[in-house]
Specification:
- The strands form four sheets. Strands 10-12-7-13-11-14 form a six-stranded mixed beta sheet. A four-stranded mixed beta sheet has the order 3-6-4-5, covered by helices on one side. Strands 1-2 form a two-stranded antiparallel sheet.
- Helix content is about 30%, strand content about 25%.
- The protein is of the alpha+beta class and about 350 residues long.
- It starts with 16 loop residues before the first helix and ends with a strand.
Length: about 350
């Protein structure tokens, strides 16, 4: 019987239900590792359940929510055939946004879209997400894997996620707490994180013609390994700061760069001044700059330049904050201060040259 007379099916349209079921079985062990006491039920329900009675300890609990993806960094993972790290990037993008207001991460859901379900590949993606959730202190309570044949190539995929946290109403951090004289503490990034990869890919792979397998002496590893370095997850480090000393605000350095993200938590009339000479960006940033002849302004408004998270604290709290972060293995330093420029402008500026 010809294919034209055979009855159509979901499988003939390119969707493999059995492969999807196999992927769910493979990912169960990783999701289980993220479980918190408040999580009810297991994987496979129509919705994830979280026991909100756990929030009764709060006087006025505010739920914080965020959603994000990892951008075109997924293309690097696809090209390298490495799928078990990109999930950590996803958790970082979501949960490090949530912690900025001082919220404790509670739970997360994910959405994985693929051209074809390869069960082991999907399980590896979920493994990375689960590992990220453990590092952020949250539970992975559900998700969706969608197969889109005809829209995506068999090896193509994308990931996205949404998360929820909680913070006491009178402890919400932000611009209203920031004061003149506050210190700005920078926390080192683990590399490029998950922003600016459209520029990075264009410069390093398209223009410079570098191979992901090429060993780059200045990086001490292959280009692909450098580009796939997972985004650092700061959630628990930031929460530790709020417990050990006074914190006025955090800023997650993502798309837009350091100055633009810091400006989001600076109140009207005040200005943040960051001294570049207080740190040296990792070699990968110089590689991007030189390979594409990228101007400094363009580089700084696209990439994190070595700083993944900023904390604004009273000047007298800076030493305690630095000690807390050092004890947690986070490289951090005082990078600047909050000033009153006298011209009523608001924002953040980078001054000086890198060390």
């Amino acid at each position: 019987m010809s294919s034209e007379t055979t009855g159509a099916s979901y499988a003939s349209a390119g969707v493999d239900i059995e492969a999807g079921d196999r992927a769910v079985e493979l990912m169960k062990e990783w999701v289980k590792k993220t479980r918190r006491p408040e999580v009810l039920g297991g994987l496979g329900g129509f919705a994830g359940l979280f026991d909100a009675s756990a929030l009764k300890r709060y006087e006025r609990p505010l739920l914080a929510s965020a959603t994000d993806g990892v951008g075109t960094k997924v293309d690097i993972a696809r090209r390298m055939g490495v799928y078990d790290t990109i999930g950590r990037d996803l958790v970082a993008m979501v949960m490090d946004d949530i912690v900025v207001c001082g919220a404790e991460p509670l739970f997360m859901t994910d959405y994985i879209c693929v051209g074809k379900v390869y069960p082991e590949r999907v399980a590896a993606l979920v493994k990375g997400i689960a590992e990220g959730c453990v590092l952020a202190g949250c539970a992975l309570i559900g998700g969706e894997t969608a197969e889109h044949p005809g829209l995506l190539g068999e090896d193509d995929f994308d990931v996205a996620g949404a998360g929820t946290g909680v913070v006491e109403a009178d402890r919400v951090l932000g611009a209203d707490r920031v004061r003149k004289g506050d210190a700005v503490i920078a926390m080192a990034s683990s590399g490029l994180h998950s922003n600016g990869y459209s520029l990075v890919r264009h410069v390093l792979l398209d223009r410079a013609g570098l191979s992901l397998d090429a060993h780059i002496e200045d990086l001490g590893r292959t280009l692909g390994e450098e580009l796939l370095e997972p985004t650092r997850i700061y959630s628990l480090d930031c929460l530790a700061l709020t417990r050990t000393t006074e914190v006025h605000a955090f800023s997650h350095v993502t798309g837009g760069g350091l100055a633009a993200n810091l400006a989001r938590v600076i109140p009207d009339g005040l200005h943040a001044v960051i001294d570049r000479s207080t740190w040296t960006p990792a070699p990968v940033f110089d590689l991007v700059a030189k390979s594409g002849n990228v101007e400094r302004l363009e580089l700084e408004r696209t990439l994190n330049m070595g700083v993944g998270m900023l904390a604004i604290v009273p000047e007298e709290s800076a030493d305690v904050a630095l000690t807390t972060l050092a004890d947690r293995g986070v490289d951090a330093w005082v990078a600047g201060e909050i000033t009153d420029r006298g011209d009523h402008t608001t924002g953040a500026a980078l001054v000086g040259e890198h060390a």
